[in-house]
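Deliverable D4.2, example record:
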Amino acid sequence: MKRGILSTREQLPDKVVSMLFAEIESGRMVPGEKLPTEQQLADRFGVSRNVLREAVAKLRADGVVETRQGIGTFILEPEKRQVVRIDAATLQDGENMERLFELRCVLETEAASLAAVRGGDADLARIKAAVDRMGGEERWEEGSIDADLEFHREIARATGNGFFFTFITFIGERIRGSIEYARLTNPLHDLVAINVPEHVAIYDALVARDPAASGVAMRRHIMGAAERVGVILPGQAWAQPPLGTLLRKENP
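Output generated by the structure prediction step:
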């Protein structure tokens, strides 16, 4: 097996996927362009053709590229992709993490607002259980991260809109690393003392069936979470009232 840029066999295909995806996202490889030959890419990344072939298969399964029989493998335009992919390696770039938090802020602010209008007692019970886990014995442990992500998933579920649940669940797993990073780079006691009350404030607003307050509490939490990993989101970007507020006005 060739040795070069990459060397850990069990992770080689995933690492090649990340590097190829980064080149596509950066524009070094553009949609519609044909990928270089297997041998050229294998030489570039210092891996065997079998490893390269496995990496390309993963990208094909993710809908990033398509193989045209007898012609080659081509990069698909984003609008033609059938699968959403956010590669973990790309989130090591500060600008990409900022973009992800922007997306999260928009989606989760609206989700909280809608959940306040549409969520039932069973939804609130599941959200409360996640809050309790975060503030309980697990608050110093890895289980607190799972509870944090569960909290956000259950709010998404409470919207009654499966697309919110799908996208917020997907994004949540991508930001798991940012939660771990925050716990490593901030005094854990101080972090818990800030993070748990932020979640409690969201829950209290949901219990009050107040979509505006729920959206504001969620927005503050997401912006705070971003700041705790060194990402500053522009506050003016969130000036519009949450959608749930408008819905309640239309359907008193």
